[in-house]
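Much of what follows relies on a compact textual record of a protein's fold. Here is one such record, which you should read through line by line:
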Amino acid sequence: MKVRPPTILALASFEKGQDFLRQCKQLGARVLLLTSQSLRGVAKWPTESIDGLYFIKDKDKTWEREETLKAVSYLARTELIDRIVALDDFDLENAAALREHLRIPGLGDSATRHFRDKLAMRVRASAAGVRVPEFVHLLHRDSVRAFCATVPGPWVMKPRHLASSAGIKKMHSVDDILRRADDLGDEQSHHLLERYLPGNVLHVDSIVDGGEVRFACASAYGKPPLDVAHDGDVFTSQLLVRGTPEEQEAIAMNREVLRAMGHVRGASHTEFIRATADGKLYFLETSARVGGAHIAELVDAALGVNLWADWAKVELADEDTPPYAPAPLRDEYAGILLSLAKDLAPDSSAFTDPEIVWRLAKDHHIGLIVRSPDPKRVDELVRSYSDRIHRDHHAYLPPQDRPTA
């Protein structure tokens, strides 16, 4: 009897995950992609690896939930869908709703909140004994006042459902907080208030299989993404030296976080902060997807692990497949630099060191990845290139005016 190949439906409101789609096809799956109508004729999808390409009406890459349910339910009349995968943070909730509606295995609505809702993340992590900055739901006014009276400012007000640093505001007084809450009106319950901790932000990028972290890579941002987003600067990140206490602590805490959140299968990008005040590591947020800002290319350059492709391997594994293990790792280090650029097509040819292994091709952006067996050499190049990019190419735009990543 001929075995039917599995059918996987990928949701991509933004253009990303091409290697995931290619790997799924290579593994013999039938690949369907639902993406934003605004990307039609713009995004460069690997059509040779896609069996069905579908578009849905969007507003700034946002899909209306009920329309998405109707569209995919209609598609399911002729396609027997086995897996639904969200390729971006903003697709997670639609994917969860579709799984619930069509009764397809994977993260449902409640479980997905632990990877999309910053308040749910903190409540869950704190209950599991993971260290988090003090926080309070921006809702009950007396609780907010009591929080500000006992937790020293400044504080940060965070949207619960936006990704990374989007929408985060630093607050310096209780009056400012309450005024901002009033301005938010009915939207204030979709925010939380948290103690602002200056420090160095780390991230751990993982592949999870069978509820266990099977691969993890720890890196550090040059400047916290919040500072880069608000003040405008060159974004950088580079791998931590393997085997150091800092790297080991980040990987161990990442394992605790993903276990607490109930991540069973797939990729994850988790962020922590090493607080300057006490030197301790605090959990900030996690996700059930590959990290943005070309973190996948950074990991691949240093270690030879393609997070998108390996996520596909895990997603399509069946109960008879042995647990995931990465291929033998490349024993090198890498650093990435990204910046908005004042020129439409910035010329990076002045950067000529042989350690450069990747260059970004995107309008009004400049980006490089450098690789070396010596982490000190990577650090030297990242610092030098950051100064040069800031001087010769960098353009500052307020967050609301920046092109969507």
